Amino acid sequence: MRTLYYGHPDFLGHDTGRAHPESADRLQVIEQALAAAEFAGLVRLLPEIPSDIQDKIALIHSKSMIAKVLATIPAQGYANLDADTVVSPGSKQAALRAVAVVCDAVDRVCGGQNTNAFCALRPPGHHAMPDYAMGFCLFNNIAIAAEYARHRYGLQRIAIVDFDVHHGNGTQAAFYEQAQVLYASSHQWPHYPGSGHPSENGVGNIINVPLPSGSGGEVFREKYRQIVLPAVRKFNPELILVSAGFDAHRDDPLASLELLEDDYRWITEELIAIADSCCQGRLISALEGGYNLQALANSVAAHVGSLMSIATGGE
Questions:
Q1: Active-site residue (options: 8, 127, 187, 303)
Q2: Do strands 206-211 and 283-287 pair parallel, antiparallel, or not at all (unpaired)?
Q3: What DSSP assignment string belongs to the chain?
Q4: Is 14 considered catalytic here?
Q5: What span, in angstroms and rounded, lies between the C-alpha atoms of 92 and 275?
Q6: Contacts of 184 by beta carbon, 8 Å cutoff, 6+ apart
Q7: Which of 118, 219, 245, 294 is 20 to 30 A (C-alpha) from 255?
Q8: pLDDT tens digits for range 227-281
Q9: What's the gap between Cα 233 and its chain centre?
Q10: Which residues contact residue 51 at a Cβ distance below 8 angstroms, ignoring those fewer than 6 apart?
Q11: Exposed e or buried b for every residue in 126-165, given b needs 16+ CB within 10 A?
Q12: Are 208 and 176 in contact (CB under 8 A)?
């Protein structure tokens, strides 16, 4: 079964203004990287936004929060949901499309049509709290995907692995007292948004792995071998979701970790190996951060190349 790839022109319409790091350029360089011949085998999809999209968002977010986010999006110009989170006329369509994309991926992967998927979407999602947007994020795409999979397919054990350089405080908050979802995050510490201490462990389902500034691939891999990967295997998930942020890269301007493309290739292969042993290879990855354009393009290529190699048995 071939790897699914989700992109859409709507994501480019989320205009965050000049000099904002979370820009449409991010997706343009990803599209360029994945236009190479080696990615010709991707199944490229452009799903519609379903009529019940706000009901899907409401699986995680309060109705008042959804209404506030949508009401803040201006008819022209820019508006702010917080100091970092800018919206513009195209932001509504992009945000709704992002949720539609991850839910479509759940349908196809859990329905057995495909093994894994990469969702090149924006705005990102893992900082979006149940009751408010923040940190470049409007709606929490990966959390919505998890809750949708639980409701639509009756899954009882879903693992979310987040290797973005920033802690996914919104995802943690959504599942802090829900033992059916394991949330494991590696992130620079201390750093934005200030959460993610190991003592924040929910009902035993939250695993936070702080990494000191300057940590490179050796530290990253060792922490995953010691802590994250064994915990995910023990959890025996029916589906693995990945908050795929590539801003822990050495060249990223918003943080100070030292990962390289090969580290993203390694963690992708490790997670797929667990998915193969636990849940018929079912894994869905959604883009979060990554703000050096060349590093982002190269890292996504490594990540998606690994998904494709394993999905096709190395062909």
A1: 127
A2: unpaired
A3: -PPEEE--GGGGG----TT-SS-THHHHHHHHHTTSGGGTT-EEE-PPPPTTHHHHHTTTS-HHHHHHHHHHS-SSS-EESSSS-EE-TTHHHHHHHHHHHHHHHHHHHHTTS-SEEEE--SS--TT--SS--BTTBSS-HHHHHHHHHHHHH--S-EEEEE-SSS--HHHHHHTTT-TTEEEEEEEESS-TTS---TT--TTTTEEEEEE-TT-BHHHHHHHIIIIIHHHHHHH--SEEEEEE--TTBTT-TT---BB-HHHHHHHHHHHHHHHHHHSTT-EEEEE----SHHHHHHHHHHHHHHHHHHHTTT-
A4: no
A5: 33
A6: 159, 160, 161, 162, 206, 207, 208, 209, 227, 228, 231, 232
A7: 118
A8: 999 999 999 999 999 999 999 999 999 999 999 999 999 999 999 999 999 999 9
A9: 20
A10: none
A11: bbbbeebbbbbbbbbbbbbbbbbbbeebebebbbbbbbbb
A12: no
Residue type (1 letter), 258: E
The position carrying tokens 């997670």 is: 271
